[in-house]
Structure formats: structure tokens, C-alpha cells
Amino acid sequence: MATTDQLTDRKTLAPFALDGETVWGFGAVGLTLLVALPVLTIGILALFPTENIWPHLVDTVLPGYVWRTAVLMTGVGLITFIVGTSTAWLVTMYQFPGRKWLQWALLIPLATPTYIIAYTYVDVFEYGGFVQTGLRDLFGWRNARDYWFPEIRSLSGAVFVMAFVLYPYVFLTARASFIKQSVCHLEVSRTLGRTALGTFFSVALPLARPGIVVGVSLAMMECLNDIGAVEFFGVNTLTAGIYSTWLGQGNLGGAAQIACVMLVFVFALIWLERVGRRQQRFHHMSQRERRPSRHKLTGWRAWVSTLGCVCPIIFGFVVPGAVLLDFAVSHFEDAASADYLRHTRNSLLLSFTAAFAAIAIGLFLAYAHRIARSDLVQIAIRFASVGYAVPGAVLGIGILVPLAAFDNALDGMAREIAGISTGLLLTGTIFSIVYAYVVRFLAISYGAIESGLGRVTPNLAAAARTLGRSSSGALREVHLPLIRPALATAGLLVFVDCMKELPATLILRPFNFDTLATHVYTYASLDLLEESALSALTIVVSGLIPVILLNRTLKEPKRKSVRMGQETGTGGIPLPD
Q1: What SS3 class is residue 159?
Q2: Tell me, what's the pLDDT at 349?
Q3: Distance from C-alpha of 370 to C-alpha of 367, rounded to nearest angstrom
Q4: Which of 10, 24, 122, 394 has fewest C-beta within 10 Å?
Q5: Whole-angstrom Cα distance, residue 543 to residue 113?
Q6: Where are the domains of the chain?
Q7: Closest C-alpha to 118, from 75, 73, 164, 72
Q8: Cβ atoms within 10 A of the Cβ of 477, count?
Q9: pLDDT for the residue 184
């Protein structure tokens, strides 16, 4: 039996015990600082550059970078909003031919990186592509002066291609919002004389606005992060400007200053997303929440709805997928070489390592967020998830500089003390790439794990603590067995995103070290897409896995379909005449 003095000593020392909440809190703050280090580094480099070329950038190239980036993001955001929201409303509220498979097929373009889509579309629509070649053969045109054809390597081409790859972000969040809406809101609107179209714009769309804003923000962030597509289209955005200023002009400070401008775009998107969700809380006034019946369309309305949902899939996946498959089959013997196997091995190694690290750190942060009571810890943990919004090019610079400083300092100490050189231990190694991957995709891991922990009642952990288990013991024996599906989902999502990541990999990869993404980028830049098609197809196939997982999260309650004009009492809303 412990004495009163012994119990008092234990309470006094508890915050500093190995398994105490304080240790979890300190660990969470420390990990947050590691995640925030790249962003802090960018800020320091921009404020104190070795050679300040900011006035030169402002007077010459920066306004063009900002303008093209803003136009690209606005165009992509507008198209993704229209396509994603309209298709989500159709497959959620109506029954038409092919709806059952279209509801998950509309997510498939999300599996394909934007740079791969860009390479295929340029190959299809450029002057030597089969589209223009076929038109010249069909109409007897001899050269480009005999006809007009839209230039695919342009800002408008980049907007079109990227929008049809990124619209699933909006489709996913909009459909989730539409599924959760109650029929009561729609019925009230209809009884007050609103048409079907009026009900959509005045009731359904405002209710879904928070989710739609999140989806559009994600699409625009991915657009801001892209380097392969915009460079291939010849569109000089802020991301392209970072590479040009750093690698072309050798000015790291100027590149950091452009990166800060990119961060302004990022924080603006985050602010817009927060504003879109502010005070957007709605309550069901009825005691029983009902879902709207899916209305069955007939005639031309049904086929127009099917066509409207099929077109985004054709533009975003079928066309580029067919091109890649044709190239991969025709050049299989050349592509399936030792280089392909080496690139695949490198991609798998990096992705598995980063996924494991992201799961471990995400689990630590999510559990610390669950048990720590300090406001500082809560804020720090939330800040650790901001890395997903930071473009890969920015992360590359922010990670390379501190790692190089650490290597140089360690090498100087080794030379002074032992007379030996340690060289570059972290810079230009696999560690730097994994570090960038973890910082960039930690939000995905943390979100999935936090969601899994949220489903575990605190009573179980409290019971474990009363039985003498420490915080770590409760995590190991109670929480981990219950959140294994969430851990697997988090790891898989991070793994696939790492397989596709290009900007950070280009900056941080070791010499003569290629992944599938960098291999495709290098060969496509040399107009040798055919020889890298197998690598591109491998990335696309790996990206189909999270699409399947995402589709499983969008389960609707079973409901009966009704024919047009039939009284249902459940708020079936027909399309306007």
C-alpha cells in the first residue's frame, strides 16, 4: 500500500513522467517545429537574401508570374466548380442510364497526375498529333496556314486539361454534402413555389457551399503546386519562376522571395476556405430526418444527364489513358527494362518509407491532440497539418537549405576535431525526399487517424487508465487494435500521393536517382513520352486504389426511385422543362 507522501510525489512528478501528458505535448510541439521548419526557412531566405533581386523581379517577371498563376487558378477553380457540382447533383438526386457506375467513375481522373495528362494531350493535339494530322488528311490541308486550330501549349490549354483532372475534388465534397442534406429543406422550397432549378440555387447549393469551397480550394492548391504540366504547356507561373530563378539564374534568395508570393496564394485559399465555412451551421427542424428520393429521368433528359457525366471522364481519363496504354503496349519491350525496374523500386522505397513515417508521426500527433489539454499543444498540432497546402517546390527549397547548413556545420566540426570530412549526410539523400513527403502529406495521415480515434469512445481509455495502464499502454492495447483500418487508409493515401509527387522530388533527389515521376517528366520534356508511357501508366494504376477507397466512403441510404410526374411525398425534384 502506497503512503500519502508517495502518492503526492507521484502526482508532482506525473507531468514529467515518460508517459505523461507533458511528454506527449512536448513531442507534439517538437514535431510541429520540424514540419514548420521549411516554411520558416523560406521566410528567412526571402527577408535576408545574399543578393536582393526583389526590385528586379517586381519590375520584370513577377507581375507576369502572378497574373498567369491567378488566371490559371481562377479558370481551374471555375471549371471544377461547374463540372464537379453539376455532376454531383445529378448522380445524387436523379436516376438515369449508367448512374450506378458513373457515381464512382467520375472520381477516376483523380488517379492521374496533372503532368501526365498534360503530356498526353499535347501529344494528341499538337501539330504533329493524330488529331491535326487526321484533319489535314481529311480536308486536304497542307500546313497550319490553311486552317485554324487552338494551341494546346497555352494558358487556356493548361486550364482545360488541369480542370478535367482536378474536378473530382469538388465532385467528392459536393456529393458528400448533397447526400447529407435532408428532404425537408427541399420540400419547403417547393411548397413556396420554387422551381427545381430555383430550389437547387436557393437551397441545395447554399447548404453545400462549405463542402464545395473546400473542394475548389483543394483543386486550386493542386493547381498551384504543379510544375510538370505548366512547364510543358509553356505557362510561366510562380512555380516555374522558382525553378527559373534558382536553377537558371543561380539566385536562391530570389527563388525564396517568389516562394513567399506563392505562400500568399496558399494562405489566401486557406482563408477563403475558412470564410466559406464560417457560420455555415444548419439544423434539421423535424424530429425525423429524411433523404430525398432519387428522381427517375426519362427521354432526352436522361440521356443528356448521362452524356454530361460521361464527358468529364472521357476528357480526364479515357483519352489520356488510351494514349498511355497504346504507347505502353507498342513500346513495352523497350520500356520494360532494368531502368524501369530501378525507377519502380526507388518509387516504392520512398513511398513506403514516407508512408510509414507519416503514419507514426500522424498517430503521435492525433493521440497527443486527444489527451493533451494545453492550448499551445492544440494550436501546434493544427499547424502541423498546414504542410499539405505548401507547394512541393517551396518545400524543396525550405528543406534543402537547413539540411545543407546542418551538413556543413557537422563537416566543419569533424574537420576541426578529428581532421576528417563527413561530407553531405542529409543533403541530396533519400532522407531529404522522405522528409519533404512527410511534411507535405502529414495532413492526410493525421486526418485519417484523427477520424479513426474519434470513433473510439474515451471511456475505453479511461477504463484502461484505471486498470493501471499508462498513456502509451492505453494507446498500444486499446486504441491501436481499434484504429487499424484508419492506419491502413492513411498509409495507403500517403503512399499513392508520394508515388505521384514531382516538384519536391526534382529538387531533392540524389544525383542519378530517378523515380517513376521524374523519369516520366524527363522523357516527356524531351518529347519521348512513348518510352516513358509504361512508367506513367504504373503511376496511374497505383492512383486508382484511393479512388476505390473514396467511393466506399460515399454510401447513400437506400431509397426508392420515382418516375417523373409521380407523387412521392418525399420531395422528388424533376429537372426543369
Answers
A1: helix
A2: 94
A3: 5
A4: 10
A5: 9
A6: 23-41+331-514
A7: 164
A8: 14
A9: 59
The CATH number of the domain covering residues in 23-41+331-514:
1.10.3720.10
Q: What angle do CA 413, 35, 68 make, to 5 degrees?
A: 110
Those residues of the chain that have pLDDT short of 70 are: 1-21, 181-199, 201-202, 273-293, 550-577
The span from the CA of 53 to the CA of 47, in Å, is: 11
CB neighbour list of residue 112: distance below 8 Å, 6 or more residues apart: 165, 316, 317, 320, 321, 539, 540, 543
Q: 295 forms bridges with which residues in the sheet?
A: 94, 562
Q: How far is CA 525 from CA 320, 340, 462, 504, 534, in A?
A: 17, 17, 58, 17, 16
Q: Which residue has the cell 497504346?
A: 326
* Assigned C-alpha cell, 38: 521549411
Helix H or strand E encompassing 295: strand 295-296
**Three cell numbers at 426?**
542529409
DSSP H helical ranges for 48-61: 54-59
Please classify residue 264 by burial: count the beta carbons closer than 10 Å to its beta carbon, then call 0-12 exposed, 13-18 middle and 19+ buried. Answer: exposed
Q: What is the pLDDT of residue 432?
A: 93
Cell numbers found for residue 507: 529538387
Return the biggest CA–CA distance within the chain.
101
CB contact at 8 A, 453 and 363: no
**What residues form DSSP beta bridges with 563?**
296
- Among residues 565, 576, 556, the alpha carbon closest in space to that of 183 is found at 556
Q: Locate cell 503496349: which residue?
A: 329
**Cα–Cα dist 305/137, whole Å:** 34
Q: How far apart are CA 476 and CA 77, in angstroms?
A: 43
